Amino acid sequence: MLAGLLPLTCGLGCDRGFHPSNIGKPAPLFVMSDGVQTVDLAKLHGRIIVLNLWATYCGPCVEELPSLLALQRRMPGLAVVAVSADQDDAIYRKFLAKHHVDVLTVRDAGQKINQMYGTVMIPETYIIDRQGVIRRKFIGAQDWTEADIVDYLNRL
Q1: Is pTM, for the whole model, over 0.70?
Q2: Radius of gyration (Cα) for the chain, nearest Å?
Q3: Which of 60, 57, 127 is nearest to 91 (CA)?
Q4: In the prediction, which pLDDT does 20 show?
């Protein structure tokens, strides 16, 4: 009997547990403008969206940034959208220029988008399919050029 319970116990133990409640649901739409850039998520309907919530003061966010930029270059049909929680506009703008950030990015000092998506720890990234449904959530820094991630995005 114990041998029969072992696979069940392992299966439960191997479950990562937390499943974000918004997976499989329509992505909350927003229009955010920081005076320089405007992001209107509804206008990106029909494209796969990689929605990255980040900040310049976040080490892991800065660490993953080059791979996000590379992903956008590698898959130009994809929409990489970066929403920064930075408070200081001058620091944010200087960072964008220094790191040649050429993806669609906007500063959300009030962190309205983070609240809308239930983000409590950055970086977090949501993958939104062509129909506007959240398909995946990544927590923490990723290498967006890894074959598994690129293959997943290509299959969407």
Answers
A1: yes
A2: 17
A3: 57
A4: 64
